[in-house]
Input
Amino acid sequence: MPLVGSQDLFKKAYAEGYAIGGFNVNNMEILQGIVDAAQEVRSPLILQVSAGARKYARHEYLMKLAEAALQTVDIPIVLHLDHGEDFEICKSCIDGGFTSVMIDASSRPFEENIRETKRVVEYAHERGISVEAELGTLAGIEDAVNVKAEDANLTNPDQVKEFVDATGVDSLAIAIGTSHGAYKFKGEAKLDIARLERCAQLLPGFPIVLHGSSSVPENLVQQCNQYGGNLPGAKGVPEDMLRKASQGAVCKINIDTDLRLAMTATIRKVFAEKPSEFDPRKYLGPARDAIQEIVKHKIVNVLGSAGKA
Ligand code: G3H
Ligand code: 13P
Ligand code: ZN
Output
């Protein structure tokens, strides 16, 4: 099966009340862990690559890794650009074989966000490629964007219909209080569920995307710290909130940080227990297994997409 776009996957997800994981890929072991998990529980899958990850792993290698995955599994896989900051990077990914892109012009003024998104949509749709855009901004750090909490803006529901109609975009990421990275909430999670519900009401049948949706499991933070790490404890997005959102209009949920924590906690443990280990397979192998486990958990217990491939 070739790589697929996301439109048909979202249609089914919306109708049947589940979400598809947008899992971030940085290297071969991460990709294998994610793909093995999705295949094991027969879930559709979105592999996503940020600008920073694309620079790190290199476009051509990522394409070949995705193609290799498709040769060994029989589930639908989307290869998606995460947080493309302008038309040029979206075009480059489309020309290079990605089947979906995100144009994230959310930090620009509304009219400019519409203009840039529309430009990407026109180029992408002529080539059968899906487009995600963002309205409202999340706080947090990515390689390309660093938004301070005070500069983050929750999505204004009054703008969503106009934005979707004007751009022709296929899915929309909205900001309801989640943020990127491991330090989302000092105390209890504060999420504006009413805002999500209002956006969903105003866009009937339309797929909504949630970014910054790692749950930052306490056991993984503890494991990092038990074996020499120094991560401040923090709260992530509660999984039961994500489970409910998946049953409604949210069709894609982005998870990167939890995979990073699983990988790092595992590698720290291996090195702490075997300080003389220097065979990369002996720490990257267990890290790949840990990624497979956490992705399986998300698919089965949070997203509800198991058995939907
Ligand atoms: O949206 C953020 C993702 O976690 C990607 O992060 O830019 O560090 O690759 P990155
Ligand atoms: P987390 O940092 O919460 O995993 O969010 C990832 C994300 O939104 C990627 O686009
Ligand atoms: Zn994101």
Remarks:
- The chain has one domain: 7-302.
- The mean pLDDT is 95.
- The first strand starts at residue 20 and ends at 24.
- The CA atoms of residues 137 and 153 lie 5 Å apart.
